[in-house]
Specification:
globular, about 20% helix, 3 helices, four-stranded antiparallel sheet, alpha+beta, about 40% strand, single chain
């Protein structure tokens, strides 16, 4: 009887700890192109396959460039785009990969579905934020890019298939 009670208590504690981990998981919401991700994960093969076919990635890793395609060119982390319980994914180019001129970085946002992932946004920016505001049951995104004269913030919302630009704000530097 006591042994059964111990097993029962251990099961209850295990379930509580697991559910606290899964449902209480905190995802990163702000990403700076110049900083490493706080909770990097191994990039799934399905995502690498999508990245390999990306036009920008192909241009930067073509035989004419000095960079070969490799998972080491990117880093990824889980994000939450819509509270559906499925872990969405943000992939960010590492600084040494990004062959586009300038000081911004390439970001790819993938939304998890039952069959894998869908690419829902590609951006070249300094900072990418997942906001607390929602549109179409998904969180809105903001990207920021600075020049010598101003900071440009672009607003994105999910249209059911991908994130689309919804507006832009220019903040002059003093």
């Amino acid at each position: 009887m006591i042994r059964n009670m111990r097993v029962y208590i251990i099961c209850i504690i295990s379930i509580f700890c697991f559910s606290s981990f899964v449902f209480g998981q905190k995802y990163e919401t702000s990403f700076n192109g110049e900083e490493k991700l706080k909770n990097p994960i191994q990039i799934p093969n399905k995502i690498l396959k999508i990245l390999r076919q990306d036009e920008e990635v192909q241009r930067c890793t073509s035989p004419n460039s000095q960079t070969e395609f490799s998972s080491d060119l990117f880093e990824a982390t889980y994000v939450n785009l819509n509270n559906d319980g499925l872990p969405d994914l943000l992939v960010k180019a590492k600084n040494e990969y990004d062959c586009i001129n300038g000081n911004a970085i390439s970001f790819w946002m993938f939304r998890k579905n039952r069959n894998g992932y869908d690419l829902v946004l590609y951006l070249y920016t300094h900072v990418l934020d997942i906001t607390k505001k929602k549109f179409n049951r998904s969180y809105k995104l903001n990207s920021s890019r600075s020049t010598g004269n101003a900071t440009y913030t672009t607003f994105y919302a999910f249209n059911g298939r991908s994130y689309i630009k919804k507006g832009r704000k220019e903040t002059p530097k003093n």
